[in-house]
Amino acid sequence: MVRxxxxxxxxxxxxxxxxxxxIFNWLFAxxxxxxxxxxxxxxxxxxxxxxYMDQLIEDLHWLGLTWQEGPDVGGQYGTYLQSERLHIxxxxxxxxxxxxxxxxxxxxxxxxxxxxQIARLTRKPPRxxxxxxxxxxxxxxxxxxxxxxxTIRFKVPEELLVFDDLIRGTCQFDMSLVGDFVIMRSDRTPxxxxxxxxxxxxxxxxxxxRGEDHLSNTPCxxxxxxxxxxxxxxxxxxxxxxGADRTLLSKRHGAFSLSEYRKLGYLPEALLxxxxxxxxxxxxxxxxxxxxxxxxxxxxxxxxxxxxxFDQQKLDWLxxxxxxxxxxxxxxxxxIPYLQAAGFIPTDENNxxxxxxxxxxxxxxxxxxCMSQIIQEVDIFFKDVVxxxxxxxxxxxxISQSVLFSFYRELQKQDTLSPEIFKEILxxxxxxxxxxxxxxxxxxxxxxxxREHGPELYNIVNIxxxxxxxxxxxRYFVVKK
Length: 481
Ligand code: GLU
What we know:
Layout: E1 3-6, H1 16-31, E2 35-38, H2 50-63, H3 86-98, E3 102-105, H4 109-121, H5 137-146, E4 151-154, E5 160-165, E6 169-174, E7 181-184, H6 192-202, E8 207-211, H7 218-227, E9 234-238, E10 241-242, H8 258-264, H9 268-276, H10 291-294, E11 308-309, H11 312-325, H12 328-341, H13 354-364, H14 374-382, H15 389-396, H16 398-412, H17 419-433, H18 438-449, H19 457-480
Parallel strand pairs: 1-2, 8-9, 10-11
Antiparallel strand pairs: 3-4, 4-7, 5-6
C-alpha cells in the first residue's frame, strides 16, 4: 500500500515550487490507489505560524487536492503537527543515546563556527569533527556538572552510502565527508533530519517524493531509518522549477504563491494542469488534460531529471483555454467580486443584473487568462467611453462618417437589438455605403468602445442595448455634421 506525504513548513505562503511537490505526491497516491498525507513541519516555532498552515490547507483544497490523513482530517498515525510530537522525538532520541547510536555534544556555536572557518581556509570539508563522540568519562562528567547546554548528535559511520532514486537512478554519498549530525538541538527541538526520519518511519511512508534540494539530506535520513529499524522508503527527488531567467523560481518572477494565483482568478484546474506539465508530459504529449485522463499513465520514473521552466505565457494560454470552456454561471460568479471591487456592479448581490452580467462575461471570456483581467475588458459596458483625439479624427473621415451615419439611421428603425439584428443592420450599412471589412466595422467599434480591439461587435451591441448605442454613435457624427 503506497503511503506518501507532503510535508511543508508553515513559515509563509505556499509557493508554486512547493505546491508542485504536493501535486506530484497526490498524483502518485492516486495513481497507485494509495494514501496521501499532509504533515506540517512546524518545529521551527519562531518562524511557523498557524495562519500559514490554515492558508496552505485552504489553497491546496482550492487546487483540488485532498488527503486522507492530516492535521485537519486526523488519521491513525496522528498527530500530523510536528510541534505536537515532541515527546515522540525525545523518547526515540533517548533510545538512541541508550543504544550508543547518539551522544551529547557540548561544542558551542562559536567553537563550531571557528572550526568551520578553519576548514574553509584549509580547504577541508566543513564537517563536524566528531570531537565529542569520544569524550572520556571524566570529560563527560565535567561537562555535565558545568551546566553547559548540549545538542545530541547521531554517529555517522564512515562508509559509502548507495541508494536508488526513482528519478535520478543510483546515488552515492561518501559519508566520511559528513560529520556526526545533530538530531536534537540545544533547545530540545528535533532537527529537520531527525523529525523527518522519525515521522516517515512512524507514519509508514513508503515513498518520499520531494525536491532535489533534499537529495543531499537523504543519506542522513537513510542512516536514521536503519537506526530506527525500518527499511528506508523509496525516494524520488524531483528536479526544481526555474523562472524564465533560469534561476530558481522566486518572488522576483512575479506571482509565486498559490494564494496569489488564486487571487488573480486563475481556474484551479488550469493551474493544476499546467503544474503537472512542469517536469512531466503525458505519452500523447497533449498539454490540456483532465486528471482522470492521465492518472493511469502517470509514472514517476518518467519525470524529467532536468529542471523545468515556469512559463507564465504558457500558463496564460492554457488557462485561457479553460476559461473559454468553463461553465458560464461559474465564471459569472467568479467575476462578481472583481467587478464589485472595481465599482462596476453593486455590492448588494440582489441589485446585480445577472442576465446582463452573464452576457458580459460570455462576451469577454475569450480575451482573458484569469478572472481578475475582466476589469480591463468590461469597462466599455459599465462606464462611458473616452475616444482619443486620433480616433476622433479617424471617425471624422468621410468613409467613417458615411458608415456611422448609415448605421445610425438603421438603428432608428429598431426598437431593440440582438446579435442577429445587428448582423442584418451591418449588411444594410454595407450595401448602402459599399464599405466593407475593417472600414465598415472599425468606425462603429471605436465610436461604441473607444478601442480598436475587444469583444465581438455583435455582443457589444447586444449588451449595450439600443439607447446606449444611439447615444454613443450620435455624438460622433453629430459633432462633425
Ligand atoms: N519541510 C520540508 C520542506 O518543506 C520537507 C522535506 C521533505 O519532504 O522531506 O522542504
